[in-house]
């Protein structure tokens, strides 16, 4: 009996081990199957893009090319034959646009979703692995303490959280006539003409440059400071000194401008160099007098005078003395509005900054951030924007630590998540061109002529023209509290419109800060000039379609007691 019991116990032990082994094998098989299915999906996606490769600029930030996705087809209204096309007048109505918008939503989400990858290179272990690379032309001065509230190097500020190098920072500061370049956190560049007061231990500057392995780019609250090599005379002439115009001089120039110089045979270059050394963005010339300062309430640069009143614009010494003066923009950045931070407490009102792609959302975020001093967030993640200083990109869009949240979404569910919204609208012709350029050449590039003449362009217009209209219609229908801003009005009357937006966000700002924003209005994502195409991209059929959408949106805006679309929108 005991022997039989022993055999049974031995069998049960083996069975227990066998069950454990089978369970583990089952879990491993399931994991392998899941990995294999994931691999198949990736392979299918790569096959779909082999014919049309993603542009380099888009691949770097992880943008999915919408050309690889199936184009959404508008569904016929309920009660109609599924194979029958809706009538043209039905296609252009608000109902059809809203239904089409829901079908486009999946396309938009897949397109705008950014994959957070390769954003922060792995920190090398130990300070010894890094060096102050000898190939840089500037002279390394040392490691200094960097307090954001009392920063000495504040003449210009740049971010590049992926490609910052010592040489890049030095060149940027040299082009703006600064003496010193300081790097912090491995990715931030600061320029100025005075050394920080407090030196730190060399080992405290231990952050590796994001774009240059083995080189030191400061540390946490620490600056690696370099003395910038003096540019050659030819390079100095190429510095970007911009003529701002002829203006009536204020009554007391000495009280208005904090720095001045009297120099016989004064030239524009001499005055600009003097003001740059003093770290002022404006150089003001009246005869042999040079004044340096900022745009202020006393001298806002809003009321320009006839250029004939400032005779001899090329020769400053012959400019009219007394009532009028010449004004130039120096290479120095106006830093009165560059400080930004996250909200210290969670916002009680969840505000959207909504627009159709290509309508100037990034530019509006730049203006809002510099006017309010707070970062803006995003429903998506764009590595290119994050790398250029939009730190709210990496913050979760529902954290409520940002002043507002960028979104291109529409539809009842997505809109009702927000308590209020700034709805930014731009001419659809300009928006479509801007978004097509961004899609195929990045934030600052232009699509090639070959791309414009391919079938991608008419397909793009067909899909996205209706999205432009349905986006506005959805926000007008489901938005709880809206401020409608037209891109063209913001561009033409920057300070009044920006003040209106800031008040909508319940933030109080000074007039000088708004003038600083106006002085830095372009930001880092403005395409350099309008690249002229030698052909008209819009066919007559496209124009007819877009113009009908414009009329539909204009009628909807007026129906909600908003001002209609600007006259320049229609017709072309």
TrEMBL record:
Keyword annotations of the record: Repeat
Cited PANTHER family: SIALATE:O-SULFOTRANSFERASE 1, WSCD FAMILY MEMBER CG9164
Keyword flag Repeat: yes
Highest taxon of the lineage: Eukaryota
UniProt family annotation: Belongs to the WSCD family.
Keyword Phosphoprotein: no
InterPro entries, A to Z: P-loop_NTPase, Sialate-O-sulfotransferase, Sulfotransferase_dom, WSC_carb-bd
Name of this protein: WSCD1 protein
Chain ranges of the WSC domain: 137-229, 240-337
A molecular function GO annotation: sulfotransferase activity
Organism (species): Trogon melanurus (Black-tailed trogon)
Residue numbers spanned by region Disordered: 66-90
């Amino acid at each position: 009996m005991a022997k039989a019991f022993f055999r049974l116990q031995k069998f049960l032990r083996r069975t227990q081990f066998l069950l454990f082994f089978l369970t583990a094998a089952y879990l491993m098989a399931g994991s392998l199957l899941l990995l294999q299915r994931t691999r198949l999906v990736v392979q299918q996606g790569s096959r779909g893009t082999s014919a049309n490769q993603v542009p380099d600029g888009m691949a770097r930030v992880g943008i999915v090319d919408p050309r690889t996705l199936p184009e959404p087809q508008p569904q016929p209204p309920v009660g109609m034959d599924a194979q029958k096309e809706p009538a043209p007048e039905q296609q252009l109505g608000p109902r059809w646009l809203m239904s089409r918008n829901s079908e486009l939503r999946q396309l938009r989400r897949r397109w705008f979703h950014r994959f957070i990858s390769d954003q922060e290179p792995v920190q090398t272990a130990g300070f010894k692995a890094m060096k102050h690379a000898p190939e840089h032309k500037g002279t390394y001065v040392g490691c200094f303490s960097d307090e954001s509230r009392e920063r000495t190097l504040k003449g210009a500020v740049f971010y590049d959280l992926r490609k910052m190098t010592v040489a890049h920072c030095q060149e940027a500061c040299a082009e703006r006539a600064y003496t010193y370049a300081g790097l912090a956190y491995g990715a931030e560049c600061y320029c100025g003409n005075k050394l920080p007061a407090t030196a730190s231990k060399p080992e405290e500057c231990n952050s590796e440059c994001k774009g240059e392995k083995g080189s030191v780019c400061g540390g946490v609250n620490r600056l690696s400071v370099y003395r910038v090599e003096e540019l050659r005379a030819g390079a100095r002439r190429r510095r970007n000194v911009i003529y701002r115009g002829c203006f009536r001089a204020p009554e007391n120039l000495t009280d208005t401008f904090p720095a001045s110089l009297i120099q016989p045979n004064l030239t524009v270059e001499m005055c600009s160099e003097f003001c740059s050394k003093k770290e002022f963005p404006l150089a003001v010339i009246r005869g042999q007098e040079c004044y340096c300062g900022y745009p202020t309430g006393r001298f806002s640069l809003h009321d320009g005078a006839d250029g004939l009143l400032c005779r001899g614009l090329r020769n400053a010494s012959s400019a009219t003395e007394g009532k009028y003066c010449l004004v130039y923009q120096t290479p120095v950045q106006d830093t009165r509005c560059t400080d930004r931070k996250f909200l210290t407490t969670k916002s009680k009102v969840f505000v959207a900054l909504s627009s159709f792609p290509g309508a100037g959302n990034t530019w509006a975020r730049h203006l809002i951030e510099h006017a309010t001093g707070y970062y803006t967030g995003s429903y998506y993640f764009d590595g290119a924007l994050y790398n250029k200083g939009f730190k709210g990109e990496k913050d979760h869009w529902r954290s409520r630590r940002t002043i507002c949240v960028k979104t291109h979404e529409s539809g009842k569910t997505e809109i009702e998540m927000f308590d209020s919204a700034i709805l930014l609208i731009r001419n659809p012709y300009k928006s479509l061109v801007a978004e097509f350029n961004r899609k195929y050449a990045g934030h600052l590039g232009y699509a090639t002529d070959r791309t414009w003449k391919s079938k991608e362009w008419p397909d793009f217009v067909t899909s996205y023209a209706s999205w432009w209209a349905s986006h506005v219609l959805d926000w007008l229908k489901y938005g709880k509290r809206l401020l409608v801003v037209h891109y063209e009005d913001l561009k033409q009357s920057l300070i009044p419109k920006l003040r209106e937006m800031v008040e909508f966000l319940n933030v109080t700002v000074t007039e000088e800060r708004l003038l600083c924003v106006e002085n830095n209005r372009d930001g880092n994502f403005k395409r350099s000039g309008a690249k002229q195409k030698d052909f008209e991209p819009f066919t007559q059929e496209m124009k007819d379609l877009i113009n009908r959408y414009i009329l539909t949106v204009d009628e909807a805006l007026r129906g909600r007691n908003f001002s209609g679309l600007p006259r320049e929108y229609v017709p072309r």
